[in-house]
Design a protein that fits this description.
By secondary structure, the chain is mostly helical. It has a single domain (8-204), classed as MFS general substrate transporter like domains (Growth Hormone, Chain: A, Up-down Bundle). It is 87% helix and 0% strand. The longest helix has 49 residues, at 134-182. It starts with 7 loop residues before the first helix and ends with a helix. Residues 193-205 have low confidence and may be disordered.
Amino acid sequence: MTPPAANLREALLAALVLNAVMMTCAASPFSVPVLAPAIAADLAVDTTWVGTFSAIHWIASLITSFAAGKVINRFGAIGVSQICLVLCGLGLVFGGSGTLSSLALSAILIGLAHGIETPASSQLLARLSPLKDQPLVFSLKQTGVQFGGILSGVLFPFLLAQIGWRWAMWGVAVTLLVGAFALQLARTRFDTASATTSARLAGSM
């Protein structure tokens, strides 16, 4: 497959896909602070444990950030996005298991995803976006974080009232895992081109 040249239409399409990925990934760690009162009451712990969850999450994110380049070269930007959705989905599965140790594992898995998600999306959009349009394209992608915060603030309290905090996390986890499979179409479109481009660059060195 011939790598596409910088093209605003392709870049906007990729940005919309990556916006959805970023939105759902961003909603994952926000789930715990939003659901914290219910979780704390169920586990008979103080809500201050949320600080520990956040610290573990960001430490894991920091660690994988250093390996982002190698991971992107190996799996492609969309492939990495799929990995991120799976990690966040599994993180919510463990988070809903209902123990402090499983919540710690949840923080690690979601953090691992966040360390590589932004570099992957940036690599793809930098390749596809015409230089003059990059501020628009990157801004469109980045709003996924804000939308993720809004989504978690609205969705998790609603699900909490309907099905409880455990099933709220598990229900969103299913959505993330399904989304990872759905991204395969985008991977075929964008990552094949990315791999070809990488091969050409390697051959020219």
